[in-house]
Amino acid sequence: MKTFYITTAIDYVNGSPHLGHAYEKVLTDVIARFRRLMGDRVHFLTGVDEHGQKVQQTARKRGIPPQQFCDEISEEFRAVCRKLDISNDDFIRTTEERHKKVVRQLLQQLFDKGEIYKAEYKGFYSTRQEQFLQEKDRNPDGSWPELFGEVTEITESNYFFKLRSYQDWLVEFLKKNENFVFPRYRQKQVLEFLAEPLNDLCISRPKDRLEWGIELPFDSGFVTYVWFDALVNYYSAVIDKPGVWPADFHVIGKDILVPPHAVYWPIMLKAAGLEPPGTLLAHGWWSINGAKMSKSTGNFVDPVAFADQYGVDALRYFLIREMSVGQDSDFSLQQFLSRYNSELANNLGNLVNRALNMTNRFAAGLVPAAETAEEPELALRALWEKTRDEVIALNEGFQFHIALERTFAFITATNAYIEARAPWKLGKSADAKDQALLKTTLATIAEALRLGVSLLPAVMPGTTKKIHDVLGYAAGPVWRDELVWGDRLTGRKVAATAILFPRPEAAKTS
Ligand code: ME8
């Protein structure tokens, strides 16, 4: 069986991790966990992108060597993974020798094949921004925007990768592989980009302009362009792992789809004789209270601090419930608290408390066996089967937000079932029929809760385990088997209470 290989983009370490980075990791983690539940062997890679101008500049501003700076910030990204319960199997840093070695090998191979050549490049250069500019960077009146400072035309020797000679191949490839990009409409954007002739890709930077990079194996006067270096991480991390390449999924933000992932990367692989990845999944962008995230304006959510304050699973739930994969979304504390209170605390949390309270009150804390099944029980069971099948299909199609909505509709229906059966009334009756119904009701509530929660481990792994724990239950190894209505909880001793979603501080004062 081929390993299901999934990756996130690797984050630039020129700033601390923010909510956008956290989302990408959580989304990828949800897919990885879901695939594991479905029985796949999964390899999940994330990491950091440590070379390039921005990193060199930021380290310089801080007055520390770039490697030391990278060491510090990489640790922050690792901490986000740990905090958010990300189940990555590996974490790659592009300053690691295992990566640099593969980049050098690939460059040498392409150079030897004649895919990389040296040429003079003439263009407008901004010394302040340390970058070549393009015609599209000009103001409408032809002048250069202020941020570029003095702009001069210079000629520089560089190495170029023959992107253009693979343009027709890539167009054909995209036409044959209609599902290469998800969501599908983004594949059209790639084809539109390819409607214009491609320029060959400049893959080097002279060392006198940029030192912080991987030296070209065939010319020590240059380092590798950061994208050519960074993309290779997906391959360098698994080169010694048989049965893993090609990647099944690269999860990335929409801003880095075209051209890096959808054009440079498949062409680089093709030129090197390697298989292309299966799918590029391009997610949308989070804004905060309607505005772009930016540290300088304070419009920034630190995912670790947020998870500390409101709970890891609450944050994971919100990110996945709120955003439809591929679309943009806004993160507002008000919306977060609204979902937290109504969906997590008052719906799921309430169901857990009721299940525990009533099992303790009416059955000495031991889940009884169901004695009958009447219309309300049969209806709840039918809803369960429909919900389970829909949720699996929705997850397979990356419609995680709707899958969660359906799962929580089942939780709501279970709460409504309790209201309809009113076990507190049945408990007062000495009638044998009422006592049988009470047992059935308690068994049904516990089983519905176990099942509903069994749909949540990919999104809320900690909460799922906690709820199974308080039901005296440990899930078995085959997930599909767990999703069958039955009597697995009969005779289990439930906990006295459970605190799952405490009222957040901010909500108390509002
Ligand atoms: O682009 N909302 O790194 P990066 C959602 N090093 N996602 C966001 C976001 C937001 N507000 N802001 C950023 C790079 N992201 C390169 C990648 S891969 C070989 C090299 C996402 O730190 C962004 O779309 O700028 C990207 O997928 C990831 O975070 C890393 O962004």
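^ ME8 complex. Confidence is low (pLDDT under 50) at residues 506-510. The pocket of ME8 is lined by residues 9-12, 20-21, 23-24, 49, 230-231, 233, 252-253, 255-256, 285-286, 293 (CB under 6 Å).
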